[in-house]
Amino acid sequence: MSDAPQPMPESDRAEPDGADLGRSLGTDFMHLDDLLTDTERELRDGVRAWCDDEVVPAAQEWWEAARYPVEMVPGYAATRVAGASIEGYGCAGVSTLADGMMCAELARGDGSIATFNAVHSGLAMTSVHLLGSEEQRERWLPGMARVETVGAVALTEPTHGSDVVSMETRAHRDGDHWVLDGAKRWIGNGSVADLVVVWARDDDGDVGGFVVESPQQLDGWDAQVIQGKISNRGVWQAHIRLDGVRIPADNRLAQARTFADTNRVLARSRQAVAWEAIGHAVAAYEGALTYALRREQFGRPLAKNQLIQDDLARMVTLITTMQLTCTRMSQLEDEGRCTIEHAAMAKLHTTTAAREVVGIARDMLGGNGILLDHHVARHFADLEATYTYEGSRTVQSLLVGRSVTGTSAFR
Question: pLDDT tens digits for 341-385?
Fold first, then answer.
């Protein structure tokens, strides 16, 4: 449960601009905070405070301008959320549960910041940590933990979204180098990253992760920012063309040989995305609760109406089921028992439930629900990206279906 805001005295009421609707109320109906250590709670609260004080007040501007907020990177680095659950290499080394709660806080603040983290930490750092040699981890992870090196992962292709097995990008061995050719699309951070893990097939048809350093400076690398998005407008996705991009031979991740290896990364990164959906839902719910307590219609606050209370109860109940699902998923991960199907079910549930929550919240705010300065509209739009990336709802459903039937519907 949370410390809910109280209705304002009549003398203090003025036309609100919605600025405070983005501040945290700490929604936690089932007291899941109790599962964190004091250190983990302090780190999570640090992310929450940074979002309240720095991210939320600025998010409207960069969302509307579709501007990558590079000035936020030092603050993001200071939260230590990058690679938070990785032991060593300058990372915080917290539990997967604490890492997930930190990811949820980022999304509660802003979907673009959360997506930046999902790419840099959830995909790029996870790829290096899970699939790199010890030398490669030591070479790349400390700089990524400090966010001196911004990471990205290039997996999706223009003609192969969910069907990643049909990957066409090629890596040809030429002496002491790999030469990369192909195209990638929807690559978060792809136009600004200092390090990109490019997934490609080698001369034997095996799948590998190839680390491209300082890609923007390399011949044959062309990254164009995708324009016209209605979601996560403060983080840039790129369409990348690779035409003879040369990298050192030892930049192939040592343990990346098959799609099973790729799935190890996706199973972990999808957990973070499931937590992100919770952050969007919490932001929308808390904004709607604050609004309902102070907004008067027909002579009394909205919150005194039975229909509004029913909606708020529905929202917090959905959020609680989402939190419980992700909490158990994270516990299984720490026990070494979380599978890609567990992550799929969690993302399937949280993104679907969050869609309902943000829809109710947007409706509850009426006309103000489509204004950026009331924050709910931004989460309403940004959740559409979360609902799709790292595997759409349908893909997650088919992964769960394959698990319960023992039969794949993909091919």
Answer: 999 999 999 999 999 999 999 999 999 999 999 999 999 999 999
CA distance 141 to 285: 36
Return the bridge partners of 222, or none: 241
Instruction: Compute the distance between CA of residue 336 and CA of residue 369 in angstroms, rounded to an integer.
Output: 42
Amino acid type, 269: S
pLDDT tens-digit map of 101-139: 999 999 999 999 999 999 999 999 999 999 999 999 999
pTM exceeding 0.85: yes
- CA–CA separation, 193 and 107 (whole Å): 21
Distance CA 178, CA 376 (A): 46
Neighbours of 270 (CB within 10 A): 27
Angstrom CA distances, 340 to 209, 219, 268, 325, 397, stand at: 19, 37, 8, 14, 12
The runs of H, that is alpha helices, within 11-95 are 38-50, 56-65, 73-79
Question: Rounded to whole angstroms, how far apart are CA atoms 155 and 262?
Answer: 9
Distance between CA atoms of residues 406 and 356, nearest Å: 31
The three-point CA angle 335-268-171 to 5° equals 135
Cα 99 to Cα 79: distance, rounded to the nearest angstrom: 11
Q: What is the β-pairing status of strands 300-301 and 151-154?
A: unpaired
For Cα atoms 285, 289, 295, give the angle at the middle one, nearest 5 degrees. Answer: 135
Model confidence at 331: pLDDT above 70: yes
State the DSSP code for 252. B
* Type of residue found at 219: D
Burial class (CB in 10 A: 0-12, 13-18, 19+), 278: buried
Give the pair of three-digit tokens for residue 370. 């489509």
Of 40, 77, 18, which Cα lies nearest the Cα of 283?
18
Give whole-number Cα distances, 6 to 166, 288, 292, in Å.
Answer: 55, 13, 10
